[in-house]
Every structure is written in C-alpha cells, then in structure tokens.
Prior knowledge:
Layout: H1 31-42, E1 47-48, H2 65-78, E2 80-82, H3 104-107, E3 112-117, E4 144-149, H4 167-182, E5 188-193, H5 202-213, E6 217-220, H6 237-246
Parallel strand pairs: 1-2, 2-3, 3-4, 4-5, 5-6
Helix pairs in contact: 1-2, 4-5, 5-6
Amino acid sequence: METSNCPLSDVGNFKFHRKSHKPFRFFDLPAELRNKVLGYILRFKGVIDIDFDNFRRISVFLVSKRFHGEAAAVLYGSNTFRLFPTAGRADSKRTKPLISRFPPHYRANLTSLELRLGPFWTKPPGCWKVNDALGLKDATAVRVLKVFVEIDPTHPIFHGFRNGKNFYTNFSGALLRQVISSLPTLEEVRFDKYPSVSYEGQLMTRLMEEAAMGKKRITTAQDEKLTALGHDETVSNECLRIMDSLN
C-alpha cells in the first residue's frame, strides 16, 4: 500500500480546487432543442380538463417573459384540451369550460381539442354550449377535433332511464355541428369510443353524419394510420352512403 511522502504538518496547507462551471444559458440552444426540453416538462398524458392541478410544472412560466412565451406555445400546442368539462363539479352553474378561461393568444396556440360525450346524458350542464365566450374562433391552429363517446343512450339497456330516446342524440349532433362550424381551420374529426359503443349505433351514426356534412375528414383512433373512415370495415353502410353523396 502506497503512503504519501507529505509530512502531516503540511496537510492543513493543502488547497482543494473545485473546477467551476459557468451557468448554461438556455436560450443559447437552438429552438428545436429548447422545445424538446420544454416538452419533457409541459407535455401531459391524457386530456387536460378543469381538474388539472399540476401547477408545479407550469411554474416555469414565471422565469421570464421570453421563457413564458415559448413555454406557452409548447403547453397549449402539445396537449389535448377538453372542450366541455366532465371532471369535478362540471355540472355546477358556476363552472366554465377550461378554454373559455384562456386569453385569446393562448387559444391561438391550441392544436388539439376533445369533445367527450356520454357524461350527463340525462341532463347536460348549462356550460355545454357553443357561444362567443367559448372562444373557438381564436383557435386558429386546431386541425384535429377528437370526439370520444362513452355511452349511447339509445341502446335498449337505457330504456326507462333516458330523457327520451333521441334526446341525447339530437343534443350531441347539434353540439358537434356547432363546434365544427366554429373552428375556422378544422380539417379532421377523429372518433374514439368505449368497446360497448357501436359505430352502427344511432349516436355514432348521427355524429359521423354531422362530420360528413361539415366536409371534414373522418378518422378513428383505432386506425393507427388514420386512414379515411370509408376504408374501415367497421363503418356502417349508412355512413358510407352519406360520404359518397357528399363526394
């Protein structure tokens, strides 16, 4: 075992030098890398609704004005936001849709919205309506509208509980039509559902009719390549007939 030749009396005279590192300047990175770093912080799994509470992450907005601007573009442009609330006290008279609370310049960064249908199928909340306060006209970057259907109340299992057989179908169809007509740059309506909901059911058929009449591309989340719905074997003949008539 090697020993030091240094006398013990000199040990106290040694100076340990730690290599100093200058602070790294975030904005020296290219924009693509800055967005990638911000994405690790500000991209969230699932759809953002009024119950969002991860404010610790978005505290990065407070770093500086420039950081705020770039972080906002990533947060609002990389996540899907729910159009009408389904979480928490969504049925409260005081509840407002999340995107209606955003300033117009934040809504301009939105790229993906979700319309979730099924909750409150007997009595939709009063805030589930398209109006100027919702601010869809400001969402000029939204190209895809996701429509997720939880249940179809026209199914016989709901007999005796529903508010008329066609009530929720008519409500949902009218709501989707208004949303489609209010989004200025919308190109695609992407449908998804629970396994218990059929594409050939009355509700899904009505929704796809509205998307077809709005002349939007219809796709399904189950199709990984997002092929046009007319090439999907699960599509009803009625939906194909409607799309053919529009073409």
